[in-house]
Automatic annotation (TrEMBL):
Organism: Immersiella caudata
Protein name as annotated: Mss4-like protein
Gene3D superfamilies: glutathione-dependent formaldehyde- activating enzyme (gfa)
A GO molecular-function descriptor: metal ion binding
Domain of life the protein comes from: Eukaryota
Keywords for this protein: Lyase, Metal-binding, Zinc
Length: 173
């Protein structure tokens, strides 16, 4: 299997919430490190906000690399902890991003990336590869946060999705 460094990488992607009220674009800097920008989190907050066993996210910096391309009247921030903001759509509930207060990056939810970029739906193979860029956006080679909350036999060993790579953090280390 080819490593993520052997795959093509996007310069630009787009995404949005389930109802379409929030739309965003990401313009990746030339030196963006795709391999070390994707991570997962199994903390209780991410589980409850996504209604899933873990959140798959991708970090992009500087903050200006991530921008909304639509109105943001439905964008709401929720502070599950005092040092971070979670941006979501007030209409449909889609989690769009997580970012630290005062930080220089945004960690966007990979599941909100448009199908064209994520798995190549409608791709022509020229501007977007036919298989999309899902693997380089969500390969899980960076960090796996709050693995102390792993569910034995369910989320503790997910090598088929590539999540067995990267550093596992048991908690707020």
């Amino acid at each position: 299997m080819a490593s993520n460094t052997d795959l093509s990488t996007p310069k630009h992607i787009e995404g949005g919430c389930l109802c379409g009220a929030l739309r965003y674009a990401v313009d990746f800097p030339e030196d963006h490190d795709f391999k070390n920008a994707c991570s997962t989190c199994q903390c209780t907050q991410c589980r409850k906000q996504t209604s899933s066993f873990f959140l798959t996210s991708h970090v992009v910096k500087p903050l200006s690399a991530f921008r909304f391309t639509s109105q943001t009247t439905t964008l709401k921030d929720y502070e599950a902890s005092p040092n971070a903001q979670r941006g979501f759509c007030a209409n449909c509930g889609s989690l769009i991003y997580w970012k630290p207060k005062g930080g220089d990056y945004t960690s966007f939810a990979v599941g909100t990336v448009d199908a064209l970029y994520l798995w190549g739906e409608g791709a022509d193979g020229v501007t977007v590869p036919k298989e999309g860029w899902g693997r380089v956006l969500a390969a899980g080679e960076a960090n796996h946060w709050w693995t102390g909350n792993e569910i034995k036999g369910v989320t503790d060993n997910i090598p088929a999705a590539g999540y067995g790579r990267g550093k596992k953090w048991k908690g707020d280390e």
